[in-house]
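Incident log entry.

Two folding requests arrived from the same account within the same minute. Monitoring flagged them as a possible duplicate submission, but the sequences differ. Recording both here for audit purposes.

Request one:
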Amino acid sequence: MFAIVEIEGNQHKVKKGDMLTVEKIKNHKAGDKMKSDKVLLKAEGSKVEVGVPYLPASSVEFSIKEYGKDDKIRVFKKKAKKRYVRVQGHRQQNTTIEITNVK
């Protein structure tokens, strides 16, 4: 059984026991349990349910494991013949979650 669920504005294919890295979930701590009602699709064997846009009475429960940051990326800007060069770094914040139940 798997489901496609929307978490923090992005869609993820999940099943029970999966560990995912998603965008930072604000206002919660590591160890908190959460629930998302934004289930777009649920499949169990050959039975597939598709929501319009979400499935009623379906949810995905997950727990927050840890917060972290991605690797640093460099943002490089340059304008030819104008002596304009800018280098900027960025590390995206993320959250690791574990799927505990798909209903």
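Request two (distinct sequence, not a duplicate):
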Amino acid sequence: MSSYSRHFSLAVSIMAVAATMMATDQLTYNNPVINRSAPDPTVIRADDGTYYLYATENVRNLPIFKSDDLIDWKFVGTAFTDDSRPQMVPDGNIWAPDIQHIDGKYVLYYSKSRWGGEWECGIGVAVADAPEGPFVDKGKMFLSNEIGVQNSIDPFYIEDGGRKYLFWGSFRGIFGVELSADGLSVAPDAEKFQIAGTLTEGTNIFRHDGYYYLIGSAGSCCEGERSTYRVVMARSRNLTGPYVDRKGNPAMDNNFTEMLTRSNNVIGPGHNANFVMDDAGQYWMFYHGFDATAPEEGRKVYLDQIFWDDNGWPYTATGHPSQSAKRPVVVRR
């Protein structure tokens, strides 16, 4: 099939999906889209069009969910078993995964840590041939005390200029380092570099119209109704910085612009996945938050559309988690 034919077919499919949604009154969705605790989500779309979401292991061995439409998610298993569970930081938990498709493999970066162990935690990596696994652990990439960055958690992978990079960190600074050609280790002789101060964690970097947008979360993530988590942002013309807020103040000095804050219904929204594009070219952001009516149920998964203002900055419709909104456009492949 020619490129023109593929694009025409996709356009026809999108129009058909939109017509079906209108005819069946399926124009909107309700938050949360995962009504159970699945913190720190990361999302990828497989070659067959199915979306997969991975999260911090409130479900032991790291839960995996899948969806055909970005709205209805089904739990399908875990990335690891007790036998295949990563042994880096033996008494630690698996936090804040980042899923990527690299050279034909599904590559899962993860943090392994325990509360208070800020010099013993670190980043590991596992690989699989399929998004549901089984994932084979390749072990640690580095520990905090090896790389010299306290609280080395929350990995994020990105490629730029033919090179592979990993960014990570928490409230001790956000750092980056170049990776090896296969993305499974730090490149020989690579030197870490810092791109932001001590305000944020949960780093994501998204390229859009000539800028790199550094999206992170500030505040306390995990205190239920007392949580102060919120999504903040800065941007740069270069992946390695310098990043600045809307006023041009440096992120290295903890200057960020707020993007998403709590509502009456959702407390502590944050630690978003990288932006996902639907089949109509619209961008979407998954993140976690506490349901104000039941904070004891943990950090559920929410979804909001991303828009871009006249100065190129991303924003959501209200700056707060939505209760109901227009559905994404997704064509089954």
